[in-house]
What does this fold into?
Amino acid sequence: MINKEEYALIQQLQQRVMELQQNEQLLTIQLEGASAFNHSILDALPIDIFLHDELGKTVFMNKEGCKRHGKPLHELVGKTVYDFFPKQIADVLRKDDLKVWQTKTQLIKSVKVEFSGKPVHLLTGKSIVRENQTNKEYLLGYALDVTKQIQAEEQVEHIVYHDSLTGLPNRWYIEQNGEEYLQDTEGCAAMLLLDLDHFKVINDSMGHQAGDLLLQKVASRLKELEEKNIMLARLGGDEFVFILKGVYGIDKICDFNEKIIQILSKPFTVEEKQVTITPSIGISLYPKDATTIFSMIKNADIAMYHLKEKGRNGYQFFTDNMKESANHRMDMEILLRQAIDKEEFILHYQPKLHLGTGKIYGVEALVRWDSPDHGLLYPGSFIELAEETGLIVPLGEWVLREACRQCREWHDLGYKDLTISVNVSAQQFRKRDLEETVKDVLETTGLDPKALELELTESTVMENPVEAAAALKRLQKMGISISIDDFGTGFSSLNYLKHFPINTLKIDRSFIQNAEKDNADAAITLAVITLAHNLNLSVVAEVVENELQLDFVTNARCNGGQGYFISRPLDREAMIEYLRINEGGR
Ligand code: C2E
Ligand code: CA
Ligand code: CA
It folds into this structure.
Protein backbone atom coordinates (compact mmCIF):
# COMPACT_ATOMS: atom_id res chain seq x y z
CA MET A 1 0.00 0.00 0.00
CA ILE A 2 1.11 3.49 -0.71
CA ASN A 3 1.64 5.55 2.42
CA LYS A 4 0.35 8.99 3.16
CA GLU A 5 3.66 10.82 2.62
CA GLU A 6 4.23 9.15 -0.72
CA TYR A 7 0.75 10.03 -1.79
CA ALA A 8 1.27 13.67 -0.81
CA LEU A 9 4.57 13.73 -2.74
CA ILE A 10 2.96 12.36 -5.86
CA GLN A 11 0.25 14.95 -5.63
CA GLN A 12 2.77 17.72 -5.21
CA LEU A 13 4.76 16.51 -8.17
CA GLN A 14 1.70 16.22 -10.31
CA GLN A 15 0.85 19.76 -9.43
CA ARG A 16 4.30 21.00 -10.35
CA VAL A 17 4.35 19.19 -13.64
CA MET A 18 0.96 20.62 -14.52
CA GLU A 19 2.24 24.07 -13.77
CA LEU A 20 5.28 23.46 -15.89
CA GLN A 21 3.19 22.32 -18.79
CA GLN A 22 0.74 25.12 -18.52
CA ASN A 23 3.42 27.71 -18.47
CA GLU A 24 4.81 27.52 -21.97
CA GLN A 25 7.18 30.38 -21.32
CA LEU A 26 8.87 28.40 -18.62
CA LEU A 27 9.04 25.31 -20.81
CA THR A 28 10.71 27.22 -23.57
CA ILE A 29 13.38 28.50 -21.28
CA GLN A 30 14.01 25.05 -19.96
CA LEU A 31 14.03 23.63 -23.41
CA GLU A 32 16.71 26.08 -24.43
CA GLY A 33 18.56 24.93 -21.41
CA ALA A 34 18.09 21.34 -22.44
CA SER A 35 19.34 21.85 -25.96
CA ALA A 36 22.35 23.57 -24.51
CA PHE A 37 22.89 20.45 -22.43
CA ASN A 38 22.23 22.45 -19.36
CA HIS A 39 19.51 20.22 -18.04
CA SER A 40 20.17 20.66 -14.40
CA ILE A 41 16.57 21.68 -13.64
CA LEU A 42 15.11 18.81 -15.62
CA ASP A 43 17.56 16.33 -14.18
CA ALA A 44 16.70 17.42 -10.68
CA LEU A 45 13.03 16.52 -11.09
CA PRO A 46 12.10 13.03 -9.88
CA ILE A 47 9.92 12.37 -12.93
CA ASP A 48 10.73 11.17 -16.42
CA ILE A 49 10.96 13.95 -18.97
CA PHE A 50 11.53 13.27 -22.64
CA LEU A 51 11.64 15.06 -25.94
CA HIS A 52 10.66 13.40 -29.24
CA ASP A 53 10.93 14.72 -32.74
CA GLU A 54 8.07 14.41 -35.19
CA LEU A 55 9.18 10.90 -36.23
CA GLY A 56 9.01 9.77 -32.63
CA LYS A 57 12.78 9.63 -32.20
CA THR A 58 14.09 10.44 -28.77
CA VAL A 59 15.96 13.73 -28.71
CA PHE A 60 16.40 14.04 -25.01
CA MET A 61 15.61 12.18 -21.81
CA ASN A 62 16.32 13.48 -18.30
CA LYS A 63 18.21 11.54 -15.67
CA GLU A 64 15.13 9.97 -14.11
CA GLY A 65 13.99 8.76 -17.52
CA CYS A 66 17.38 7.24 -18.30
CA LYS A 67 17.31 5.52 -14.95
CA ARG A 68 13.95 3.95 -15.68
CA HIS A 69 15.19 2.62 -19.02
CA GLY A 70 18.42 1.52 -17.40
CA LYS A 71 20.54 3.14 -20.13
CA PRO A 72 22.68 6.26 -20.50
CA LEU A 73 21.27 9.12 -22.58
CA HIS A 74 23.45 8.53 -25.63
CA GLU A 75 22.08 5.01 -25.99
CA LEU A 76 18.52 6.31 -25.93
CA VAL A 77 18.83 9.19 -28.34
CA GLY A 78 17.39 8.32 -31.76
CA LYS A 79 15.39 5.39 -30.38
CA THR A 80 11.58 5.25 -30.56
CA VAL A 81 8.93 3.70 -28.31
CA TYR A 82 9.13 0.60 -30.53
CA ASP A 83 12.67 0.06 -29.23
CA PHE A 84 11.56 0.40 -25.61
CA PHE A 85 8.26 -1.46 -25.44
CA PRO A 86 6.45 -4.45 -26.96
CA LYS A 87 4.62 -3.53 -30.16
CA GLN A 88 1.17 -3.58 -28.57
CA ILE A 89 2.12 -0.96 -26.00
CA ALA A 90 4.26 1.04 -28.42
CA ASP A 91 1.35 1.27 -30.86
CA VAL A 92 -0.80 2.89 -28.20
CA LEU A 93 1.92 5.35 -27.21
CA ARG A 94 2.70 6.32 -30.78
CA LYS A 95 -0.98 6.82 -31.54
CA ASP A 96 -1.21 9.19 -28.60
CA ASP A 97 1.83 11.07 -29.84
CA LEU A 98 0.35 11.49 -33.29
CA LYS A 99 -2.84 12.83 -31.78
CA VAL A 100 -0.86 15.45 -29.90
CA TRP A 101 1.02 16.41 -33.05
CA GLN A 102 -2.24 16.74 -34.93
CA THR A 103 -4.22 18.71 -32.41
CA LYS A 104 -1.33 20.58 -30.83
CA THR A 105 -3.15 20.27 -27.54
CA GLN A 106 -1.99 18.74 -24.33
CA LEU A 107 -2.85 15.09 -23.62
CA ILE A 108 -2.81 13.79 -20.08
CA LYS A 109 -3.40 10.12 -19.66
CA SER A 110 -2.59 7.18 -17.47
CA VAL A 111 -0.95 4.29 -19.35
CA LYS A 112 0.08 0.82 -18.36
CA VAL A 113 3.51 -0.22 -19.65
CA GLU A 114 6.14 -2.76 -18.76
CA PHE A 115 9.74 -2.33 -17.70
CA SER A 116 11.70 -5.59 -17.68
CA GLY A 117 8.49 -7.56 -17.41
CA LYS A 118 7.09 -5.58 -14.51
CA PRO A 119 3.85 -3.68 -14.99
CA VAL A 120 4.18 0.01 -14.32
CA HIS A 121 1.37 2.56 -14.34
CA LEU A 122 2.50 5.93 -15.64
CA LEU A 123 0.70 9.20 -15.55
CA THR A 124 1.83 10.83 -18.77
CA GLY A 125 1.46 14.31 -20.12
CA LYS A 126 2.40 15.33 -23.64
CA SER A 127 2.37 18.58 -25.50
CA ILE A 128 4.14 20.30 -28.39
CA VAL A 129 6.78 22.90 -27.69
CA ARG A 130 8.82 25.10 -29.96
CA GLU A 131 12.51 25.77 -29.62
CA ASN A 132 13.12 29.50 -29.79
CA GLN A 133 16.31 29.62 -31.84
CA THR A 134 15.60 27.00 -34.50
CA ASN A 135 11.82 27.38 -34.45
CA LYS A 136 11.68 23.57 -34.52
CA GLU A 137 8.83 21.71 -32.82
CA TYR A 138 9.22 18.85 -30.40
CA LEU A 139 6.94 16.67 -28.38
CA LEU A 140 7.67 17.24 -24.71
CA GLY A 141 6.45 14.56 -22.39
CA TYR A 142 6.64 13.63 -18.79
CA ALA A 143 5.81 10.38 -17.04
CA LEU A 144 5.16 9.91 -13.38
CA ASP A 145 5.17 6.45 -11.85
CA VAL A 146 1.78 6.08 -10.15
CA THR A 147 1.85 2.28 -9.81
CA LYS A 148 1.52 2.35 -6.05
CA GLN A 149 -1.32 4.79 -6.19
CA ILE A 150 -3.18 2.77 -8.79
CA GLN A 151 -2.64 -0.43 -6.85
CA ALA A 152 -4.02 1.28 -3.78
CA GLU A 153 -7.00 2.43 -5.79
CA GLU A 154 -7.49 -1.07 -7.09
CA GLN A 155 -7.43 -2.43 -3.58
CA VAL A 156 -10.00 0.09 -2.46
CA GLU A 157 -12.04 -0.71 -5.52
CA HIS A 158 -11.91 -4.39 -4.72
CA ILE A 159 -13.15 -3.74 -1.22
CA VAL A 160 -15.92 -1.48 -2.44
CA TYR A 161 -17.06 -3.82 -5.20
CA HIS A 162 -16.82 -7.14 -3.41
CA ASP A 163 -18.70 -8.84 -0.67
CA SER A 164 -16.41 -9.53 2.24
CA LEU A 165 -18.23 -12.69 3.33
CA THR A 166 -18.07 -14.64 0.07
CA GLY A 167 -15.52 -12.67 -1.97
CA LEU A 168 -18.08 -12.39 -4.78
CA PRO A 169 -18.83 -9.13 -6.59
CA ASN A 170 -21.55 -7.29 -4.68
CA ARG A 171 -24.72 -5.35 -5.52
CA TRP A 172 -22.75 -2.15 -6.05
CA TYR A 173 -20.56 -3.89 -8.60
CA ILE A 174 -23.56 -5.28 -10.47
CA GLU A 175 -25.26 -1.91 -10.46
CA GLN A 176 -22.15 -0.18 -11.82
CA ASN A 177 -20.97 -2.79 -14.32
CA GLY A 178 -23.91 -5.07 -15.00
CA GLU A 179 -25.40 -2.96 -17.74
CA GLU A 180 -22.21 -2.83 -19.77
CA TYR A 181 -21.84 -6.56 -19.28
CA LEU A 182 -25.39 -7.15 -20.54
CA GLN A 183 -24.98 -4.89 -23.56
CA ASP A 184 -21.83 -6.66 -24.62
CA THR A 185 -23.71 -9.75 -25.65
CA GLU A 186 -24.69 -11.53 -28.80
CA GLY A 187 -28.07 -13.23 -28.71
CA CYS A 188 -29.76 -12.53 -25.44
CA ALA A 189 -28.71 -12.44 -21.84
CA ALA A 190 -30.49 -13.72 -18.76
CA MET A 191 -30.45 -12.53 -15.22
CA LEU A 192 -31.14 -15.16 -12.60
CA LEU A 193 -32.01 -13.87 -9.18
CA LEU A 194 -31.63 -16.61 -6.64
CA ASP A 195 -33.03 -16.51 -3.15
CA LEU A 196 -32.67 -19.29 -0.60
CA ASP A 197 -35.98 -20.59 0.75
CA HIS A 198 -36.45 -20.27 4.49
CA PHE A 199 -32.91 -19.00 5.00
CA LYS A 200 -34.18 -16.64 7.66
CA VAL A 201 -35.44 -19.55 9.72
CA ILE A 202 -32.01 -21.18 9.64
CA ASN A 203 -30.34 -17.89 10.45
CA ASP A 204 -32.66 -17.21 13.37
CA SER A 205 -32.58 -20.70 14.80
CA MET A 206 -28.90 -21.57 14.35
CA GLY A 207 -27.48 -18.10 14.80
CA HIS A 208 -25.86 -15.59 12.46
CA GLN A 209 -22.50 -17.28 12.49
CA ALA A 210 -23.99 -20.50 11.19
CA GLY A 211 -25.99 -18.47 8.69
CA ASP A 212 -22.82 -16.80 7.42
CA LEU A 213 -21.08 -20.13 7.15
CA LEU A 214 -23.95 -21.55 5.13
CA LEU A 215 -23.87 -18.55 2.79
CA GLN A 216 -20.14 -19.06 2.23
CA LYS A 217 -20.70 -22.70 1.40
CA VAL A 218 -23.56 -21.88 -0.93
CA ALA A 219 -21.38 -19.26 -2.64
CA SER A 220 -18.53 -21.67 -3.19
CA ARG A 221 -20.86 -24.25 -4.75
CA LEU A 222 -22.35 -21.60 -7.00
CA LYS A 223 -18.84 -20.51 -8.01
CA GLU A 224 -18.35 -23.97 -9.52
CA LEU A 225 -20.93 -23.00 -12.13
CA GLU A 226 -19.03 -19.90 -13.21
CA GLU A 227 -17.46 -19.97 -16.63
CA LYS A 228 -16.86 -17.65 -19.57
CA ASN A 229 -19.92 -15.44 -20.17
CA ILE A 230 -21.35 -16.17 -16.75
CA MET A 231 -21.13 -13.65 -13.94
CA LEU A 232 -21.98 -14.46 -10.35
CA ALA A 233 -22.56 -11.92 -7.59
CA ARG A 234 -24.14 -11.69 -4.16
CA LEU A 235 -26.74 -8.97 -3.94
CA GLY A 236 -26.92 -9.15 -0.18
CA GLY A 237 -28.51 -11.37 2.44
CA ASP A 238 -29.37 -14.71 0.90
CA GLU A 239 -29.76 -13.26 -2.60
CA PHE A 240 -27.37 -14.22 -5.38
CA VAL A 241 -27.42 -13.29 -9.01
CA PHE A 242 -26.15 -14.94 -12.17
CA ILE A 243 -25.90 -13.16 -15.50
CA LEU A 244 -25.67 -15.47 -18.49
CA LYS A 245 -24.50 -13.94 -21.75
CA GLY A 246 -24.77 -15.06 -25.36
CA VAL A 247 -27.86 -17.17 -24.84
CA TYR A 248 -29.65 -18.44 -27.94
CA GLY A 249 -32.45 -20.48 -26.42
CA ILE A 250 -34.61 -20.81 -23.36
CA ASP A 251 -33.44 -24.44 -23.09
CA LYS A 252 -29.97 -23.33 -22.17
CA ILE A 253 -31.29 -21.13 -19.36
CA CYS A 254 -33.50 -23.95 -18.08
CA ASP A 255 -30.54 -26.32 -18.10
CA PHE A 256 -28.50 -23.85 -16.10
CA ASN A 257 -31.28 -23.48 -13.53
CA GLU A 258 -31.49 -27.24 -13.19
CA LYS A 259 -27.76 -27.23 -12.56
CA ILE A 260 -28.14 -24.67 -9.77
CA ILE A 261 -30.93 -26.67 -8.13
CA GLN A 262 -28.88 -29.85 -8.51
CA ILE A 263 -25.71 -28.39 -7.04
CA LEU A 264 -27.52 -27.00 -4.00
CA SER A 265 -29.56 -30.15 -3.41
CA LYS A 266 -26.89 -32.04 -1.48
CA PRO A 267 -27.09 -31.23 2.24
CA PHE A 268 -24.62 -28.73 3.73
CA THR A 269 -22.77 -29.41 6.93
CA VAL A 270 -22.90 -26.39 9.19
CA GLU A 271 -21.57 -26.64 12.72
CA GLU A 272 -21.82 -30.42 12.51
CA LYS A 273 -25.46 -30.27 11.51
CA GLN A 274 -26.89 -31.30 8.15
CA VAL A 275 -28.79 -28.48 6.52
CA THR A 276 -30.76 -28.72 3.29
CA ILE A 277 -31.67 -25.65 1.37
CA THR A 278 -33.62 -25.01 -1.81
CA PRO A 279 -33.42 -21.98 -4.08
CA SER A 280 -36.18 -19.94 -5.69
CA ILE A 281 -34.95 -18.39 -8.93
CA GLY A 282 -36.58 -15.54 -10.82
CA ILE A 283 -35.41 -14.89 -14.37
CA SER A 284 -35.52 -11.81 -16.57
CA LEU A 285 -34.27 -11.69 -20.14
CA TYR A 286 -32.24 -9.00 -21.87
CA PRO A 287 -33.37 -7.21 -23.98
CA LYS A 288 -36.87 -8.77 -24.00
CA ASP A 289 -37.93 -7.96 -20.44
CA ALA A 290 -35.74 -4.96 -19.69
CA THR A 291 -32.69 -3.08 -20.90
CA THR A 292 -31.37 -1.42 -17.77
CA ILE A 293 -29.72 -3.24 -14.94
CA PHE A 294 -32.20 -1.91 -12.41
CA SER A 295 -35.25 -3.12 -14.27
CA MET A 296 -33.54 -6.43 -15.00
CA ILE A 297 -33.07 -6.94 -11.27
CA LYS A 298 -36.57 -5.70 -10.51
CA ASN A 299 -38.24 -8.01 -13.02
CA ALA A 300 -36.23 -11.01 -11.91
CA ASP A 301 -37.26 -10.12 -8.38
CA ILE A 302 -40.91 -9.97 -9.38
CA ALA A 303 -40.64 -13.40 -11.02
CA MET A 304 -38.95 -14.73 -7.90
CA TYR A 305 -41.73 -13.43 -5.68
CA HIS A 306 -44.29 -14.93 -7.96
CA LEU A 307 -42.60 -18.29 -7.56
CA LYS A 308 -42.46 -17.96 -3.79
CA GLU A 309 -46.19 -17.28 -3.72
CA LYS A 310 -46.77 -20.46 -5.66
CA GLY A 311 -44.78 -22.49 -3.21
CA ARG A 312 -41.04 -21.89 -3.74
CA ASN A 313 -38.24 -24.11 -4.93
CA GLY A 314 -37.62 -23.95 -8.65
CA TYR A 315 -37.37 -21.26 -11.27
CA GLN A 316 -39.72 -18.85 -12.92
CA PHE A 317 -39.42 -16.60 -15.99
CA PHE A 318 -40.74 -13.07 -15.76
CA THR A 319 -43.91 -12.25 -17.68
CA ASP A 320 -45.59 -8.90 -18.22
CA ASN A 321 -48.74 -9.78 -16.25
CA MET A 322 -46.61 -10.33 -13.19
CA LYS A 323 -45.75 -6.69 -13.22
CA GLU A 324 -49.34 -5.69 -12.68
CA SER A 325 -49.73 -7.93 -9.69
CA ALA A 326 -46.37 -6.76 -8.39
CA ASN A 327 -47.45 -3.15 -8.78
CA HIS A 328 -50.64 -3.97 -6.97
CA ARG A 329 -48.62 -5.65 -4.26
CA MET A 330 -46.38 -2.61 -3.95
CA ASP A 331 -49.38 -0.26 -3.75
CA MET A 332 -50.86 -2.49 -1.09
CA GLU A 333 -47.62 -2.52 0.84
CA ILE A 334 -47.51 1.27 0.90
CA LEU A 335 -51.19 1.46 1.91
CA LEU A 336 -50.66 -1.17 4.59
CA ARG A 337 -47.70 0.70 6.01
CA GLN A 338 -49.75 3.90 6.18
CA ALA A 339 -52.72 2.02 7.62
CA ILE A 340 -50.60 0.89 10.54
CA ASP A 341 -49.53 4.46 11.24
CA LYS A 342 -53.09 5.70 10.93
CA GLU A 343 -54.51 2.78 12.95
CA GLU A 344 -57.04 1.84 10.31
CA PHE A 345 -57.57 -1.57 11.84
CA ILE A 346 -60.43 -2.90 13.88
CA LEU A 347 -61.06 -6.17 15.64
CA HIS A 348 -63.96 -8.53 15.28
CA TYR A 349 -64.64 -11.07 17.97
CA GLN A 350 -65.87 -14.58 17.38
CA PRO A 351 -67.52 -16.21 20.39
CA LYS A 352 -66.38 -19.64 21.59
CA LEU A 353 -68.97 -21.96 23.04
CA HIS A 354 -68.32 -24.35 25.90
CA LEU A 355 -69.91 -27.51 24.56
CA GLY A 356 -70.47 -29.04 27.99
CA THR A 357 -72.24 -26.08 29.58
CA GLY A 358 -73.54 -24.29 26.50
CA LYS A 359 -71.97 -21.04 27.69
CA ILE A 360 -69.88 -18.54 25.82
CA TYR A 361 -66.54 -18.60 27.62
CA GLY A 362 -64.28 -16.63 25.35
CA VAL A 363 -63.76 -14.93 22.02
CA GLU A 364 -61.11 -14.98 19.32
CA ALA A 365 -59.91 -11.59 18.13
CA LEU A 366 -59.79 -11.39 14.32
CA VAL A 367 -58.27 -8.37 12.67
CA ARG A 368 -59.90 -6.40 9.85
CA TRP A 369 -58.54 -3.54 7.86
CA ASP A 370 -61.06 -0.74 7.57
CA SER A 371 -59.51 0.86 4.50
CA PRO A 372 -60.85 4.16 3.19
CA ASP A 373 -59.81 3.03 -0.32
CA HIS A 374 -60.91 -0.60 -0.32
CA GLY A 375 -63.57 -0.88 2.35
CA LEU A 376 -63.48 -3.58 5.01
CA LEU A 377 -60.72 -6.06 4.21
CA TYR A 378 -60.34 -9.53 5.74
CA PRO A 379 -57.02 -11.02 6.80
CA GLY A 380 -56.93 -13.24 3.72
CA SER A 381 -56.13 -10.18 1.62
CA PHE A 382 -53.38 -8.63 3.72
CA ILE A 383 -51.96 -10.89 6.44
CA GLU A 384 -49.59 -12.69 4.08
CA LEU A 385 -48.25 -9.39 2.75
CA ALA A 386 -47.89 -8.14 6.31
CA GLU A 387 -45.88 -11.26 7.14
CA GLU A 388 -43.61 -10.94 4.13
CA THR A 389 -42.89 -7.29 4.78
CA GLY A 390 -42.45 -7.64 8.52
CA LEU A 391 -45.37 -5.28 9.06
CA ILE A 392 -47.06 -8.07 10.97
CA VAL A 393 -44.90 -7.23 13.95
CA PRO A 394 -46.31 -3.71 14.62
CA LEU A 395 -49.75 -4.85 13.45
CA GLY A 396 -49.69 -7.87 15.74
CA GLU A 397 -48.68 -5.70 18.65
CA TRP A 398 -51.59 -3.37 17.97
CA VAL A 399 -53.99 -6.35 17.83
CA LEU A 400 -52.66 -7.71 21.12
CA ARG A 401 -52.99 -4.34 22.84
CA GLU A 402 -56.46 -3.61 21.52
CA ALA A 403 -57.72 -7.14 22.26
CA CYS A 404 -56.47 -7.00 25.85
CA ARG A 405 -57.85 -3.51 26.35
CA GLN A 406 -61.24 -4.65 25.06
CA CYS A 407 -61.27 -7.78 27.19
CA ARG A 408 -60.46 -5.74 30.28
CA GLU A 409 -63.41 -3.48 29.42
CA TRP A 410 -65.74 -6.51 29.27
CA HIS A 411 -64.42 -7.66 32.61
CA ASP A 412 -65.20 -4.24 34.02
CA LEU A 413 -68.72 -4.52 32.61
CA GLY A 414 -69.18 -7.68 34.61
CA TYR A 415 -68.26 -10.43 32.13
CA LYS A 416 -65.44 -11.43 34.41
CA ASP A 417 -64.66 -14.92 33.14
CA LEU A 418 -64.46 -14.05 29.47
CA THR A 419 -61.17 -14.98 27.81
CA ILE A 420 -59.62 -13.52 24.70
CA SER A 421 -57.57 -15.39 22.08
CA VAL A 422 -55.08 -13.55 19.95
CA ASN A 423 -53.40 -14.97 16.85
CA VAL A 424 -49.62 -14.72 16.87
CA SER A 425 -47.80 -15.07 13.56
CA ALA A 426 -44.53 -16.91 13.08
CA GLN A 427 -42.65 -13.67 12.58
CA GLN A 428 -43.93 -12.22 15.83
CA PHE A 429 -43.06 -15.38 17.67
CA ARG A 430 -39.57 -15.47 16.24
CA LYS A 431 -38.89 -12.00 17.54
CA ARG A 432 -37.32 -12.27 20.94
CA ASP A 433 -39.28 -9.39 22.41
CA LEU A 434 -42.73 -11.03 22.24
CA GLU A 435 -42.62 -11.84 25.93
CA GLU A 436 -41.67 -8.26 26.75
CA THR A 437 -44.51 -6.93 24.61
CA VAL A 438 -47.04 -9.28 26.22
CA LYS A 439 -45.85 -8.30 29.68
CA ASP A 440 -46.12 -4.61 28.85
CA VAL A 441 -49.57 -4.98 27.30
CA LEU A 442 -50.88 -6.86 30.33
CA GLU A 443 -49.45 -4.25 32.64
CA THR A 444 -50.81 -1.25 30.78
CA THR A 445 -54.26 -2.73 30.13
CA GLY A 446 -54.50 -4.31 33.57
CA LEU A 447 -55.85 -7.54 32.07
CA ASP A 448 -55.56 -10.68 34.17
CA PRO A 449 -53.04 -12.93 32.34
CA LYS A 450 -55.40 -15.86 32.88
CA ALA A 451 -57.84 -14.23 30.47
CA LEU A 452 -55.33 -14.19 27.61
CA GLU A 453 -54.73 -17.04 25.20
CA LEU A 454 -52.21 -16.94 22.37
CA GLU A 455 -52.94 -18.96 19.23
CA LEU A 456 -49.94 -20.21 17.32
CA THR A 457 -49.96 -22.54 14.35
CA GLU A 458 -48.21 -25.86 14.44
CA SER A 459 -45.67 -24.78 11.85
CA THR A 460 -44.76 -21.69 13.86
CA VAL A 461 -43.94 -23.81 16.86
CA MET A 462 -42.21 -26.54 14.87
CA GLU A 463 -39.82 -24.15 13.13
CA ASN A 464 -37.57 -24.41 16.11
CA PRO A 465 -39.17 -26.72 18.66
CA VAL A 466 -36.56 -26.47 21.41
CA GLU A 467 -36.52 -22.70 21.62
CA ALA A 468 -40.27 -22.55 21.09
CA ALA A 469 -40.92 -24.87 24.02
CA ALA A 470 -38.78 -22.71 26.30
CA ALA A 471 -40.51 -19.50 25.17
CA LEU A 472 -43.97 -21.03 25.58
CA LYS A 473 -43.08 -22.23 29.05
CA ARG A 474 -42.09 -18.71 30.05
CA LEU A 475 -45.38 -17.35 28.69
CA GLN A 476 -47.35 -19.99 30.56
CA LYS A 477 -45.51 -19.08 33.73
CA MET A 478 -46.93 -15.58 33.36
CA GLY A 479 -50.38 -17.18 33.50
CA ILE A 480 -51.14 -17.08 29.78
CA SER A 481 -52.67 -20.05 27.91
CA ILE A 482 -51.28 -21.40 24.69
CA SER A 483 -53.36 -22.84 21.90
CA ILE A 484 -52.17 -24.64 18.77
CA ASP A 485 -54.17 -23.33 15.81
CA ASP A 486 -55.05 -25.27 12.65
CA PHE A 487 -53.91 -28.46 14.33
CA GLY A 488 -53.48 -31.38 11.96
CA THR A 489 -52.19 -29.38 8.99
CA GLY A 490 -48.55 -29.39 10.03
CA PHE A 491 -46.10 -32.17 10.64
CA SER A 492 -46.03 -32.46 14.38
CA SER A 493 -47.19 -35.63 16.01
CA LEU A 494 -49.20 -35.74 19.19
CA ASN A 495 -46.37 -37.74 20.62
CA TYR A 496 -44.12 -34.79 20.06
CA LEU A 497 -46.58 -32.33 21.46
CA LYS A 498 -46.66 -34.36 24.67
CA HIS A 499 -43.61 -32.49 25.81
CA PHE A 500 -44.93 -29.13 24.78
CA PRO A 501 -46.22 -26.54 27.23
CA ILE A 502 -49.60 -26.02 25.58
CA ASN A 503 -53.19 -25.97 26.84
CA THR A 504 -55.45 -26.32 23.84
CA LEU A 505 -55.56 -27.81 20.38
CA LYS A 506 -57.76 -26.17 17.79
CA ILE A 507 -58.57 -28.89 15.34
CA ASP A 508 -58.28 -27.68 11.80
CA ARG A 509 -61.41 -27.01 9.81
CA SER A 510 -60.69 -29.79 7.33
CA PHE A 511 -61.14 -32.45 10.02
CA ILE A 512 -64.53 -31.19 11.05
CA GLN A 513 -65.70 -30.77 7.49
CA ASN A 514 -64.50 -34.18 6.34
CA ALA A 515 -65.70 -35.97 9.45
CA GLU A 516 -69.23 -35.17 8.44
CA LYS A 517 -68.80 -36.76 5.00
CA ASP A 518 -66.44 -39.62 5.61
CA ASN A 519 -66.48 -42.34 8.23
CA ALA A 520 -62.76 -42.94 8.14
CA ASP A 521 -62.06 -39.23 8.72
CA ALA A 522 -64.58 -39.21 11.53
CA ALA A 523 -62.74 -42.08 13.17
CA ILE A 524 -59.39 -40.30 12.86
CA THR A 525 -60.85 -37.11 14.29
CA LEU A 526 -62.28 -39.00 17.25
CA ALA A 527 -58.92 -40.70 17.83
CA VAL A 528 -57.11 -37.35 17.77
CA ILE A 529 -59.55 -35.87 20.27
CA THR A 530 -59.18 -38.87 22.59
CA LEU A 531 -55.42 -38.74 22.42
CA ALA A 532 -55.43 -35.01 23.14
CA HIS A 533 -57.57 -35.60 26.19
CA ASN A 534 -55.17 -38.26 27.37
CA LEU A 535 -52.45 -35.64 27.17
CA ASN A 536 -54.60 -33.33 29.27
CA LEU A 537 -55.17 -30.90 26.45
CA SER A 538 -58.50 -29.30 25.80
CA VAL A 539 -59.80 -29.45 22.25
CA VAL A 540 -61.65 -26.77 20.33
CA ALA A 541 -63.41 -27.39 17.02
CA GLU A 542 -63.37 -24.42 14.71
CA VAL A 543 -65.46 -23.54 11.69
CA VAL A 544 -68.56 -25.30 12.94
CA GLU A 545 -70.99 -24.39 10.21
CA ASN A 546 -74.11 -26.45 10.84
CA GLU A 547 -76.03 -28.45 13.40
CA LEU A 548 -74.67 -31.76 12.19
CA GLN A 549 -71.13 -30.60 12.81
CA LEU A 550 -72.02 -29.18 16.18
CA ASP A 551 -73.57 -32.50 17.18
CA PHE A 552 -70.57 -34.39 15.92
CA VAL A 553 -68.03 -32.34 17.86
CA THR A 554 -70.19 -32.30 20.96
CA ASN A 555 -70.50 -36.08 20.88
CA ALA A 556 -66.80 -36.38 20.21
CA ARG A 557 -66.28 -34.61 23.55
CA CYS A 558 -64.66 -31.53 22.15
CA ASN A 559 -64.44 -28.95 24.87
CA GLY A 560 -65.14 -25.91 22.79
CA GLY A 561 -66.73 -24.98 19.50
CA GLN A 562 -66.41 -21.97 17.28
CA GLY A 563 -67.97 -21.23 13.92
CA TYR A 564 -70.68 -19.43 11.99
CA PHE A 565 -73.31 -21.81 13.34
CA ILE A 566 -72.55 -20.55 16.84
CA SER A 567 -71.82 -16.96 15.85
CA ARG A 568 -70.11 -15.05 13.12
CA PRO A 569 -67.27 -12.77 14.18
CA LEU A 570 -68.87 -9.60 15.59
CA ASP A 571 -67.74 -6.02 15.76
CA ARG A 572 -67.43 -4.22 19.08
CA GLU A 573 -71.03 -3.05 19.38
CA ALA A 574 -72.52 -6.31 18.16
CA MET A 575 -70.33 -8.19 20.61
CA ILE A 576 -71.61 -6.20 23.59
CA GLU A 577 -75.15 -6.89 22.44
CA TYR A 578 -74.32 -10.59 22.00
CA LEU A 579 -72.89 -10.81 25.50
CA ARG A 580 -75.94 -9.07 26.93
CA ILE A 581 -78.33 -11.51 25.26
CA ASN A 582 -76.29 -14.64 25.93
CA GLU A 583 -75.17 -13.63 29.38
CA GLY A 584 -71.76 -14.87 28.22
CA GLY A 585 -69.12 -15.46 30.80
CA ARG A 586 -71.18 -14.10 33.68
P1 C2E B 1 -57.94 -18.57 11.98
O1 C2E B 1 -57.13 -18.19 13.14
O2 C2E B 1 -58.06 -20.02 11.67
O3 C2E B 1 -59.35 -17.92 12.21
C1 C2E B 1 -60.55 -18.51 11.86
C2 C2E B 1 -61.04 -18.00 10.54
O4 C2E B 1 -62.17 -18.77 10.13
C3 C2E B 1 -61.51 -16.56 10.61
O5 C2E B 1 -61.32 -16.00 9.35
C4 C2E B 1 -63.00 -16.72 10.82
O6 C2E B 1 -63.77 -15.62 10.43
C5 C2E B 1 -63.28 -17.92 9.95
N1 C2E B 1 -64.45 -18.67 10.40
C6 C2E B 1 -64.90 -18.84 11.64
N2 C2E B 1 -66.01 -19.62 11.65
C7 C2E B 1 -66.24 -19.95 10.38
C8 C2E B 1 -67.26 -20.76 9.73
O7 C2E B 1 -68.13 -21.32 10.32
N3 C2E B 1 -67.16 -20.89 8.38
C9 C2E B 1 -66.18 -20.30 7.66
N4 C2E B 1 -66.16 -20.49 6.34
N5 C2E B 1 -65.22 -19.53 8.25
C10 C2E B 1 -65.26 -19.37 9.58
P2 C2E B 1 -60.69 -14.58 9.18
O8 C2E B 1 -61.16 -13.64 10.22
O9 C2E B 1 -60.82 -14.21 7.75
O10 C2E B 1 -59.15 -14.85 9.49
C11 C2E B 1 -58.40 -15.69 8.68
C12 C2E B 1 -57.07 -15.97 9.28
O11 C2E B 1 -56.29 -14.81 9.38
C13 C2E B 1 -57.14 -16.50 10.70
O12 C2E B 1 -57.41 -17.87 10.67
C14 C2E B 1 -55.78 -16.19 11.21
O13 C2E B 1 -54.85 -17.16 10.82
C15 C2E B 1 -55.46 -14.90 10.49
N6 C2E B 1 -55.67 -13.78 11.40
C16 C2E B 1 -56.82 -13.15 11.75
N7 C2E B 1 -56.57 -12.16 12.61
C17 C2E B 1 -55.23 -12.18 12.86
C18 C2E B 1 -54.36 -11.42 13.67
O14 C2E B 1 -54.76 -10.51 14.41
N8 C2E B 1 -53.03 -11.72 13.65
C19 C2E B 1 -52.57 -12.72 12.88
N9 C2E B 1 -51.25 -12.98 12.90
N10 C2E B 1 -53.35 -13.47 12.10
C20 C2E B 1 -54.68 -13.20 12.08
CA1 CA C 1 -56.86 -18.56 15.17
CA1 CA D 1 -57.61 -21.84 12.77
Q: What stands out?
A: Residues 24-38 have pLDDT under 50 and may be disordered. Residues 176 and 293 are 9 Å apart (CA to CA). DSSP finds 25 helices and 21 strands in the chain.
